[in-house]
Amino acid sequence: MKKTAFTATIDQIKEKVISGEWPPGSRIPTLQQISKELGVGVSTVREALRTLESQGNISIEHGRGMYVRNDPLLLEDPTANLKELGDISLVKLLEARILIEPALAALSAERATLPEVKQLRELADNMVLQMEEGGPFLDTDLAFHRLIAESAQQPVLFRMMESIFPLLSEGRKHTNTLPHMRTKASSYHVLIAIAIEERHSEQARQLMYHHINDMLEALKKS
């Protein structure tokens, strides 16, 4: 299966980090420079870097630039900084998400910028297409949830969400194997994106709640 430009960009950037071309602690090139080097759009590079940030590889410091994380262990183990929490069950992770993400979705509907709204809809639509083509969609899934957290413009809730981003990738690998969950998830993403686009905060809150609760209930029954 041919990789999408988004997935290929993530792989190429990750290789630069793992190979040492971009060593730990170094400042990485601008979005425009990376876009030119890799031959992809700036928006694709931006989302790829956001995904790598959620995985613990890249640190994006607004107003200062983008850096490779100082801890090289995070390149191999994105949950290394959470080991002190012990083994976190997927049920516990979803219980935490259901407390935070509906509120973030509601705030996103109120505060997201027009470019963020457009990008959310594009990510939701891309996930549907990737599922229809049988391609990988996990990175798109994670980028969608991260953009909602960012667009909510609530730094305290974002920090809380950011602390569990490294765990989401592994968790989604499990929940996506539950019956009908991938189809339901892509449908929820489109509906959530539309609610945010139409500035229906309570609807966005309810949809995000049901999206996560569906995974939680299915997991409990499995």
Automatic annotation (TrEMBL):
<dbReference type="Pfam" id="PF07729">
    <property type="entry name" value="FCD"/>
</dbReference>
<dbReference type="InterPro" id="IPR000524">
    <property type="entry name" value="Tscrpt_reg_HTH_GntR"/>
</dbReference>
<keyword id="KW-0805">Transcription regulation</keyword>
<keyword id="KW-0238">DNA-binding</keyword>
<dbReference type="Pfam" id="PF00392">
    <property type="entry name" value="GntR"/>
</dbReference>
<feature type="domain" description="HTH gntR-type">
    <location>
        <begin position="3"/>
        <end position="71"/>
    </location>
</feature>
<keyword id="KW-0804">Transcription</keyword>
<protein>
    <submittedName>
        <fullName>FadR family transcriptional regulator</fullName>
    </submittedName>
</protein>
<dbReference type="InterPro" id="IPR011711">
    <property type="entry name" value="GntR_C"/>
</dbReference>
